[in-house]
Amino acid sequence: MLRPGTGRAPSGIRVYRCPSVVKVPDFPALVSLAGFATVPPMNGNFTKEEPWRIFRIMSEFVTSFEVLTHTGPAVTVFGSARLSPKDPYYEAAVKLGHGLAKNNLAVITGGGPGAMEAANKGAAQAKGKSVGLNIELPHEQDGNSYANIPLHFHYFFTRKVCFVKYSIGFVFMPGGFGTLDEFFEVLTLVQTQRIPKFPLILFGRDYWKGLLSWMKARLEKDGMISPDDLNLIAITDDPEEAIEIILDYLRRVGAPEQTPKAFS
Fold it and tell me: What is the CATH code of the structural domain delimited by 73-255?
């Protein structure tokens, strides 16, 4: 269940917190139901025992699925945590998040600072659903205060599932390794038809043009990808154009009526 939180938030924005870990209260019963021959560790730190780590993983899926199922159609915005509020791309992400929320689309980000904060900020200012999927990192990534539906993850792979499972479009602001990782993973899911041909939008022509040129000159030329694969990607410098690409997809195709193959 969601419950009102106590974290900082912009004026007028109601923050909800959900538990980062769902506790499994009755280990003996679970052992019996699962048919395990071993007994759970009695020191309470079951994550140190490999067979029991599954419950921590399961808790992240259960919590996030319960929350995100009720957000409605969403767009995930990726981008660097290092983006300064003074950067033009930051302001563009604010406009993007605001415009998506005004069109009744939830905005999902990684929940951190930079581009993620900017998109969450725009969605929150539009009084929309502003989702932040934060992750525990060695150098702690504080969750931004504009995510009014915050979720906290220990595992990257459970977080990745939630980025994709509930989204009907993806926007990639300028970013580093994390953004590239998400871009190629989502692109691969679309290319292999594990998820529908959702809009994949690179934001910032000057930033992304070198990567696209290399993909065409090496991957396409050498036959590593099909000639039409690069057509799966759109590129723009305009938040309004990015929003219109997504809205046009919804008008033509609509939200998926069935769970994509990747999650079924």
Answer: 3.40.50.450
